[in-house]
Structures are given as structure tokens and as C-alpha cells.
Amino acid sequence: MPPPIHFVHFQETIRCLSFTMAGTEAKKPSAKQSGAKKKEVKKETGLGLTHRKADNFGEWYSEVVVNAEMIEYYDISGCYILRPWSMAIWEIMQEFFDPEIKKMKIKNCYFPLFVSPGVLQKEKDHVEGFAPEVAWVTKSGESELEIPIAIRPTSETVMYPYYSKWIRGHRDLPLKLNQWCNVVRWEFSNPTPFIRSREFLWQEGHTAFATKEEADAEVLDILELYRRIYEEYLAVPVIKGKKSELEKFAGGLYTTSVEAFIPNTGRGIQGATSHCLGQNFAKMFEINFENEKGEKSMVWQNSWAYSTRTIGVMVMVHGDDKGLVLPPKVASVQVIVIPVPYKDADTQGIFDACSATVNTLSEAGIRAESDFRDNYSPGWKYSHWEMKGVPLRIEIGPKDLANKQVRAVRRDNGAKIDIASADLAVEIKKLLDNIQQNLFDVATQKRDECIQVIHTWDEFVQALNQRKMILAPWCDEEEVEADVKARTKGEMGAAKTLCSPFDQPELPEGTKCFASGKPATKWTYWGRSY
Amino acid sequence: MPPPIHFVHFQETIRCLSFTMAGTEAKKPSAKQSGAKKKEVKKETGLGLTHRKADNFGEWYSEVVVNAEMIEYYDISGCYILRPWSMAIWEIMQEFFDPEIKKMKIKNCYFPLFVSPGVLQKEKDHVEGFAPEVAWVTKSGESELEIPIAIRPTSETVMYPYYSKWIRGHRDLPLKLNQWCNVVRWEFSNPTPFIRSREFLWQEGHTAFATKEEADAEVLDILELYRRIYEEYLAVPVIKGKKSELEKFAGGLYTTSVEAFIPNTGRGIQGATSHCLGQNFAKMFEINFENEKGEKSMVWQNSWAYSTRTIGVMVMVHGDDKGLVLPPKVASVQVIVIPVPYKDADTQGIFDACSATVNTLSEAGIRAESDFRDNYSPGWKYSHWEMKGVPLRIEIGPKDLANKQVRAVRRDNGAKIDIASADLAVEIKKLLDNIQQNLFDVATQKRDECIQVIHTWDEFVQALNQRKMILAPWCDEEEVEADVKARTKGEMGAAKTLCSPFDQPELPEGTKCFASGKPATKWTYWGRSY
């Protein structure tokens, strides 16, 4: 059995070293090293990762997010700095998602960071789910607060007292709000950049409807947007489905999710969730309205969120031993143009051609930049931008200049393509589309190779040991999932349900649950997870 | 002397009532009242404000922000809910500012909410300025934290240890980052929506340069963007200038600001600030670099921010006794179209004309909506949308239909204009531009009427009592400002410098400081302030 994954290890080391490593960061591929004299071109690259994805996934991941300049470790454990290279990805997803929800008449708002203990504790199941992770403010300046104040781990209890106030009649429905904000969950297990951090950025939508039908429909509309973020933007295949009773949102009616899978660790990862809260919170917070017949009714509610975790999933799925691999749609730099001058060659002509290339591409709406730094060799620059995951590199040397062409090199598969300068924008656009599609196709193929259909407990255990994403017929009983968890407990973590896919294979009459032997009612994905 | 302004009063009342007032909110102008039966058209309006701007400014302000549905009071004092009506204004300003700073090669990032005490306390003057207002997290779940963790009141100390790490050589400069985030300042005096709240939203830019000249230039470039936000978007005139030594940012070298003025209260208000931090933080946080000559140097730094306070200034300046008045450029609804059906008239035709009007305007890029609610009279709707400050109302009745026209009514001055349907988009666009300009012109005229040039202490005291914005010759000595503060202390608050305007009137040789009698070195604005 492969060794367990210890994320926390390398991170904590990094964190502790961060202020003592100054000047010794040989592997840091930026221009930020001291002692670099002008014109002294660095030939040694030394940019490679010290860990391989296949061998030490946890260490590899931590190294990639730092060396690609996405993340800086912070001096408070579990908190991370999102550097511009990752923040730009967040902004691009936001530029897609925000207009989409506005089309659905969902409006942005901003509720406070702080929650008073009274409302936080109003919904019993909900507070049980979050209480151990809640951070409490007890002091301001030198004064103790009269009552401690919680920092939102999520905003159901922050918002719903006001939904109760604002909603009176059926004309006030639906009420559809969203906010982009930070939330805090003071977790102590395995903090991992993007994937599990004590503070993270997300959007949280909170909607209230007159009928369950409307709520049900919205849950799926939002889930489809989450699928599109993963599949169309991050090029990560996901499975849409419903969470089990054990795994659903604390206090909700049912939870749907998009589930991704990390082949290297054999772990599923919940990509984003769209919950139908039913009328449970409405009952606790007295969110009532007078319906069209003049009768008092309770609203039906949803809440849904995706977070900066999305970025971590993308890194894990596409990254390789050269570093990050960015899908073109979310890359803040899609094309990096690098001059390759030679002795006696027309250096100025090459530089001009690079600038012209950037201009042509920019005008065509492609995010292109050039790297004219004179203290790094072309080879160093290749490695640097590969580490940062730029989808396409364009090299321009004397021969390219003579032939009125550029050389394009793909980050995803290393393929080299010569492109006539005259066709530049059209061909590069095609190439970027192709890279986007190829990343998705390759990731889907790898994910699909990990899916194992099983029918018995023995097959289940074997597949689990092989780090598979397991599709199994299940009786859908809470106790059975609890039992599976108990029986698979170990240092790698217990197996649990990931989701019951909406796209259900045929379940022949008489199929039995792999775990309980009772009649199976559905196919469900199982596995270890993040 | 007019009575002092007590903001806190009405707010706290509102806050305490918020959960007991259900069903009795007669003055709330939304459709959210219970008991409204279908087709029972409400004729009584009862929408007016209970306080007048000229009589009870503080209460008027609190009422406007609540009744216009910008703000909801929250159950933690000093925290406010930003409802979609105000959030949209914030987003529109962001859509202007964010691309502008990106053109300046400033990149967005996100640093953690939390600061460890060690770094927070590193810069002495800085921490003294913020320490009394810092909120501290001391617990997570049921566990005490080993060391308390502060919530950022601003992010200098959060960010600069990493600037020290990232900046090595001159090629790493300039480093220009910005973040959009929330900050917390646990103030106890007079919380006021937008203007002074314990949590607020802002952007904070933090930049580092090799030379003072570059830093100086950026300070002014950013200040110009802040001027444009106020003058071009919020239609609020501001004065650009430099803060006094007493009023500058704690720990910085100098502070520039845009200063607005609220004629009704006779108070200046700092609109946004752009600080040159000099090398002070660089020294404390060891932000050094090797310059082009290979010598060790210290960076020059700036920080600059504008916050949701901008929205409050706009409300105070333009609002009137009918409610909010929104400048068209920041209004999420610029035109509200209201059908005015009569008995026996072609109701369907009127509704169709309203829909067609909204379509035509939307296609022309104007933010237009219709109000087809059937349980409110046209008169009620007029008052409702006036309360919410929509710049232009379009009424369509049988006569308008017959004449192939619409009637437009301006929110700023109540003027009624008939517009031929054929010219709709062009004429409405002109009108909106005109309203935007008129709001700015009227506000500028009112502000200018409050400016009083004085030369002596007696004139100063008289002008202060008349709630003027005082322009006075000053010796620019810290002790003299401290002395003026001490001498003007009272229940309305002491007078202080607002700024020394960049646009300096002539200062004749031999002019004396109004307060000290020493030779004056500059003209400076003085007054009470928020």
C-alpha cells in the first residue's frame, strides 16, 4: 500500500523557513534573486521541482503552488497569501459566474463578517456541523467584549433573520441574494493551500422561494454553472450528483455537488455544492409569507457556494513535473513571447518582432506578454514560464525572423508548431482552443481510468486499495455508510460516499448493496476524499 | 448655535426595534408589507420621511439609507448589511477603478484577514494609531488560541514582511499590488452607516518603488482616480490636497486626500487617501534591494484606499426630503418606467408601451426597469422610486400613448419633459447626462457657498459657528494645530485641518497665520469633520 499523504509536513517546513531562506532560494524561478548583475545572463536553470508528482504528491503540490508564484505561505498556519498569479484565475471565474447569476436575477449584497452567538446557535444541526471550527472575537483593543462574537464560517445564520424581516407576502418572493466574501473555518487537520485553509474566498448564494419546485430547479441551474466552471474553465471533469444523508449540508434538506477526482492520490474532492435547505431554516428563523390565497406559508430555501478550492483542484489535476499547467481560459497570460537572439543576429529585429507579435495577439483578444529581461537566458525563461503554467510559448529567433514565422510550443504536450506571421492571431486562437480541449480530454481519460464498478465488499476493498473512484450499488442507508466508514478507517482516512450521480447506470432488478447485502436502490460513487 | 448632531441615537433605536417592528413598518416604502391582497390598490402613500434634512440631519440620514433599502441595521452595533441597492453602487465604482489601476500595471492579490501580534506591532507610530480599534480572535471552537490573533484594520503590517521577501533587486521593482477586501476597526464613537462602521469594504493598494520620484508620481495618479470617482461618478465635488502632520497616516511620510464637505452639518469629510509612506515601513520591515550600481537601497512605498464611505458621502450630499438622489452613473436603475392606466383606457397598450420603452432603453445601454405591480397605485410608485433615488421616471398614460410620447420626470429637480417615442434613447441619454452634470453643479455651488476665507482668530471662530469650510493662512506648525483643536473643543467636536489644497490661492508676502500670528506658509482648509 502506498504511503499516506502528508500535506502538512512540507508546508510547515516552508512556513518556518520563509524568513530565514532569504538569498538561498536556489529553486525559486523568479527574477527576485539578489546579486544579479546587469548583463550577467544566468545560464544554469535549476528551476525544476525537487519532488515528482507521481512520487511525492503532497510535497509536489506545495512546491508547485509556491514556485509558480500562486501562493505564499503566511506566518499564521492555515492562512495563505493569494498572489496575483492565482488571484487572476479567481477573477476570471468571477467574470463568468457573476453575470450568469445576474441573468438569473440574483443580486449581490454584503452581510457582516460577524455573527452574534444567539443566531449562530439557532439551527441545532447546522451549528453542530460548524461549532468546532468557529473563530471567536473576544477583545477589542485592551477591552473584553461583553459577549464574544463569532466570525462567519458560512452566512445562513447571519442572513436569515433578515430574510424573515424582509419577506412578508408572496410578492417578496423569490428573494435571491449572493455575496462574494471571505469566511473562516479554524480547522486543525492538514491545512493545504486552496484545498483546506482557515480563511478562504467564496461566493455564497442564498435564495428563498414560495414553492419547492422553484427551489429544486434553481439548485440544478446553479450546479450546472459549477459544472461549467470546472469543465469549461478549469478543464476538470466533474460528476454531478446528490450527497448522501451523512454527507449533506448540516441542517439542509439535500445537497447536490460536482465531484472531481485526483488520480494521483485516489481521492475524490467535492468541487462545489448547491444545497436545497428545504423549510428547516425557515422554521427556525420564522421566514413566513402570506401566499396568494392569503394563507401563511413557509419559504423554501437554497444556499450554494464555490470557493478558491477550485484553483487547487485545477493545480492537482493538470500540473506536471515541470510545474503548473494552466488551461488557456483561466490563464492571465495565455501566450508568453520570448526573443531568442544569437550573436551577430539582428537582435533589434527580433525584439521588434516579439513586440509586434504581442500587439497582434492582444488586439485579437489574446492575453499575451513578452519577456525581454536581459539577465536571463532563453532557456531559463522557458523553464520559468513552464513552471508558471503558461499555455503557449512563442519563440522568435533569427531563423523565424527570416522565414516570417514564429515557433509556438505547447505547455500541455510540448508540441512545437511553426506559424506564419500572417496567420498569427487565427492560428494561435485555434491552438489555445485545442489546448483547452486537450487538457479536458486527457484529464477525463485519466479520471475515467480510475473509475471501478464493483458489486461486493471484497471488490470494494481491493478497489479502494488501488485508489479507485468506486461506483457501487448501494441500499442508501445511513447506518450502512457509517459502517463502511468504520470498517475502512486507517491512516489514509476512511472511505465514504462521494455522490450518487444524476446520470445513473441501469440497476438490474435484484442487485444487492455491496456493503449490506440489502436490495440496492442506486449507484453511488465511493472513495477516500479531501 | 444649532444643536449637535447625534447619529447614534436613531440608529440604536432602529437596531433595537428591528425584530419587534414586524408588521408595523408603516413608513417602509417597499412591497414587503403583509396583508396586501391582490388587486387591492394602495392609494395612501405614507412613504415620506419623518425627518427633514435641514432640521434633523442625523435622523434624516439614518432614515434615508434604511428606507431607500441601501442598508439594514444589524444586530451587532456598528455593523450594517449592504443591500443590493447600495452594493450595486459599490460594484459600479469598482468596474471603473479596477481596470484603471490594471492599466497602471497594479495587480490584484489577497492577503489574509488575520495578523499575528508580532508584525502588527512592528511599526510604533502605526500601531499606536490603530491599536485601540483592533479586534482580537482568542478562541476557536471551545479552545483558547496559543496567541491571540488580530483582525486587519489595514494591511501594511500584513503585507510588508512578504515585500521584504519578494524584493531583492531593482528588477523586482516596482511591486504594485491591490486587494479588494473587508477590514475591521472596532470603533466605539458614533457608528454611522457607510461613514463609520466597524467592518467596511475597501480596496487597498500597496506599492514599492526604487525612487521617491516614482512613489510621488503614483500618489497623485491614484488621487486623481479618487477625484474622478467622487466628481465623475458620485457627482460630489472634492478638494485635492495634503494632510497636516497631525492628520497624516500613522507611520507614513505624507498623506494626500480628496476632501468633501457636507453643507448641512458644516463638516468636512475625508473622501479617500493616497499616502506616501516614505522609507519608514521599509526600514521596520527591512524591504531592501540592490540597485543598478550594486548598492543596497531601501524602497519607497505608497498605500492608498477608498471605501464604502464614498456611498455615504453621496447620500449626504444629494439626498433630499423625498429620500435618496442617485447620480445616473452609479444608479443600478437609471430609469423607472411606470404605467399610468385609467378606467376604460387601453391598459394592455400602455403596458406594451412600457415594455417597449424598457427594451429600447436597455438596447441603448441605459439601465431601465418597469414597475408593473398591480397592488400599488402610480402615485405610490412615484414616491417609492423617488425614495430610492432613481434619476429619471417615465410615466406612460393614455394621452402619452395617443401622442406617441412618454413623460419623463427628473428626480433631481422635478422637471417634467415630454419626449417623442421616436427620439427616446437619444433624448433620455441626454437627460441622464444633464442630471449627472446638474447634480455636480448644484453640489459644487452649495459647497462653494460654505467656503469662507478668513485671516484672524475671531473670523475663524465666527465662521466655525456658521458651519463653514474655512480657508485660512497657516504657519503649518503641529503645535499650532494642536492648540486650535484644544481651543475649539466642545460638544460638536474640535476644529482641525482638512487639507492644504494643491490649488493654492496667492499668499501675499507678510500674510500672518490666523492662529499663531507667525508668518503663514500656505492656505489650509479647516473645519469640523467626520
TrEMBL record, chains A, B:
<dbReference type="Pfam" id="PF09180">
    <property type="entry name" value="ProRS-C_1"/>
</dbReference>
<dbReference type="InterPro" id="IPR006195">
    <property type="entry name" value="aa-tRNA-synth_II"/>
</dbReference>
<keyword id="KW-0067">ATP-binding</keyword>
<dbReference type="InterPro" id="IPR002314">
    <property type="entry name" value="aa-tRNA-synt_IIb"/>
</dbReference>
<dbReference type="Pfam" id="PF03129">
    <property type="entry name" value="HGTP_anticodon"/>
</dbReference>
<dbReference type="Pfam" id="PF00587">
    <property type="entry name" value="tRNA-synt_2b"/>
</dbReference>
<keyword id="KW-0030">Aminoacyl-tRNA synthetase</keyword>
<keyword id="KW-0648">Protein biosynthesis</keyword>
<dbReference type="GO" id="GO:0005524">
    <property type="term" value="F:ATP binding"/>
</dbReference>
<dbReference type="GO" id="GO:0006433">
    <property type="term" value="P:prolyl-tRNA aminoacylation"/>
</dbReference>
<dbReference type="InterPro" id="IPR045864">
    <property type="entry name" value="aa-tRNA-synth_II/BPL/LPL"/>
</dbReference>
<dbReference type="InterPro" id="IPR004499">
    <property type="entry name" value="Pro-tRNA-ligase_IIa_arc-type"/>
</dbReference>
<dbReference type="InterPro" id="IPR002316">
    <property type="entry name" value="Pro-tRNA-ligase_IIa"/>
</dbReference>
<dbReference type="GO" id="GO:0017101">
    <property type="term" value="C:aminoacyl-tRNA synthetase multienzyme complex"/>
</dbReference>
<dbReference type="InterPro" id="IPR016061">
    <property type="entry name" value="Pro-tRNA_ligase_II_C"/>
</dbReference>
<dbReference type="InterPro" id="IPR017449">
    <property type="entry name" value="Pro-tRNA_synth_II"/>
</dbReference>
<keyword id="KW-0436">Ligase</keyword>
<protein>
    <recommendedName>
        <fullName>proline--tRNA ligase</fullName>
        <ecNumber>6.1.1.15</ecNumber>
    </recommendedName>
</protein>
<dbReference type="InterPro" id="IPR036621">
    <property type="entry name" value="Anticodon-bd_dom_sf"/>
</dbReference>
<dbReference type="InterPro" id="IPR004154">
    <property type="entry name" value="Anticodon-bd"/>
</dbReference>
<dbReference type="InterPro" id="IPR033721">
    <property type="entry name" value="ProRS_core_arch_euk"/>
</dbReference>
<dbReference type="GO" id="GO:0005737">
    <property type="term" value="C:cytoplasm"/>
</dbReference>
<feature type="domain" description="Aminoacyl-transfer RNA synthetases class-II family profile">
    <location>
        <begin position="112"/>
        <end position="327"/>
    </location>
</feature>
<dbReference type="GO" id="GO:0004827">
    <property type="term" value="F:proline-tRNA ligase activity"/>
</dbReference>
<keyword id="KW-0547">Nucleotide-binding</keyword>
